Amino acid sequence: xxxxxxxxWSGGKDAALALHQLESSARYEVAALLTTVTEx
Length: 40
Known about the structure:
A two-stranded parallel sheet has the order 1-2. The chain is of the alpha+beta class. The chain has 1 helix and 2 strands; from the N terminus they run βαβ. The protein has one domain (3-34). Helix 1 (13-24) links the parallel strand 1 and strand 2. The radius of gyration is 12 Å and the shape is elongated.
C-alpha cells in the first residue's frame, strides 16, 4: 500500500521535479497539491 502524501506546489521546476519523482515512486501516492494564493 502506497503512503499518501501532500505536496506543496509552487509551480516552479523544483516542485515539478518533486511531483514527477513522487508520481514515479512505488512507495508514495500524491493525494493532493497545496498551493497559496495572495489577494491583490
